[in-house]
Amino acid sequence: MPTFTLNGETIPYQNGDTIIRAAWRAGVEIPHYCWHPGLSTAANCRMCLVHIKSGRQMAMPIMKYDAKKKAYVPDTKPKLFPACQMSPSPGMEVDSISEDVQKAQAHVQEFLLLNHPVDCPICDQAGECKLQDYHEAHLNSAKRKRTEPVHKPKGVRFGPTIVYDAERCISCTRCVRFCDEVVGDPVLDSRERGNRCEIIVSPGRELDHDYTLMTEHVCPVGALTSRDFRFKARVWFLKSADGVCNGCAKGCNSHVDYDPRYGKVYRLRPRDSKINDFWMCDHGMLSYQSQTEARITVPVAGRGEEADTLLHEEIVDEVSSRLATKNASKVAFVLNATATTEDNFALARFAELLGSNRIYLAARNAEAEGWYADEILRHEDPNPNRAGALRAAGRDITETVEDLVSDVLSGDVEAVVALGPECGLTTDALSALEKLEDVICLTSNEGALASVASVQVPVAHWAEVFGTYSNYEGKEQSFFRAVPPPEGVVPAWEQISQIARAMGLDLPFEKTGEVRSAFAKARPVATPEAAQPAQGA
């Protein structure tokens, strides 16, 4: 692979690379605003100017102040080039930290800040803003402008999810290019020039496609803000865990941003990977909301007015005593295509030890939920772990929840143990299950299965566990726990293990790593690294 030299360091590059892309791939940052590795080159911010020292040198005439003569005199300085446009060549020598480059970066930064409002204390981008970072690194001086700044529209509603502040905008056009090139919806554009330039929405339109939050995410400053995250949290209080999107079978990699003080997830961001490149859809980025909304955190036994809340310490005895009196061959076990592989494997193993062969699969129904696929990220299957659930069962599960309802009506099923909350059917469609005395639903959230259950067993949410999903390609991806579950609540696999042991069955799982090791032995995989326990699991 050919190489060039950047600041004395050898950098390899590929055909078609630019200097900044090759440096980015090597982990070296050249300051930039408008450049993004997933978008076309605009070269309008001029922050990535570098000095190409090799080859024929070009000089620019300038007027330089001479202190002795106390006057400006003719002089020259090296011609600088935008690293986002220039292609490297073998042996090329590039300098991005020389005095001339640093002066140019300081001047660019000063011009960008001339009319920029000093509203960092109330700006949602504060703490992760390139303007702040580069001001400290490349300008670090007070603003010299003394005249009134140019004022532009503020708090402009671009659509249901995005608010625009034109005064903060630096006209990098990332948002415009993202809508054009990635989404294929040229709903944004820029108008006017210079310090009058601002981003606008096409007449008669709103920014309302399926990637609006991603449009906000690519903004390097605080011009575009998400109405979902706006004024909710400060990023310096947030920590991040590696996650895998729960939204569909694509398996997009994500950053789960949470506040450890409150045990609450505040947002999801895309994590660069070969699966989703740099992007996520709105549905996936908002899927974190189920960590706090419609949660079930207290065990409940009974239905309707006869329902009683239980202590967490009582739920194991409650469930085990109910199942102990049943004919195992008539106990149905419902795996779930939205649950982790660990949870599904524990439940499938429980069924096997109990002696039941009645395994069903609950899954989201794309048509019922209005889910649709696209050619970007959204997969036709809205379930994140159908492949993992099937592998956990050790066989292809053809029986659905609709089949379960039929078997209940025919008398072939007398009790149900199900992973919830989603199953693709409505509460009315599951009404037959209400005729059974024992329908145990292990769930983190409210849902149709939970609503017809005679025993609701609260379990940890996906953001509260170390887990694994297998995407539509069968690729296993493990993710980390972001926040602890509510007090007394444990992961579903752990709750299942406790119930099984109370019934005298050998299901000795106490750590995530033990479940993964058992799964790897029972269901050998082509990627053994996926079965390794996450750090701290």
Summarize, please.
The protein is an alpha+beta fold and 537 residues long. It is built from 14 helices and 24 strands.
Provide a descriptive summary of the structure in words.
This protein is of the alpha+beta class and 537 residues long. Helix content is 23%, strand content 20%. It has 14 helices and 24 strands. A hairpin with a 4-residue loop joins β14 and β15. The longest helix is centred in the first third of the chain and has 15 residues. The protein starts with a strand and ends in a 15-residue tail after the last helix.
Number of helices: 14
Mean pLDDT: 94
Kindly estimate the percentage of residues that lie in beta strands according to DSSP: 15-25%
Kindly report the spatial arrangement of strands forming the biggest sheet: 17-16-22-21-20-18-19
Structural class: alpha+beta
Q: What composes the largest sheet?
A: 7 strands, mixed
Distance between the termini: 40 Å
The percent of residues in helical segments reads 10-25%
In angstroms, what is the radius of gyration?
29 Å
CATH domain topology of the largest domain: Rossmann fold
Report the CATH C-level class of the largest domain: Alpha Beta
Low-confidence stretches: 526-536
- Quick one: overall form? elongated
**How many strands appear in the DSSP assignment?**
24
Give the CATH architecture of the largest domain: 3-Layer(aba) Sandwich
In the residues, how many domains can be counted? Answer: 3
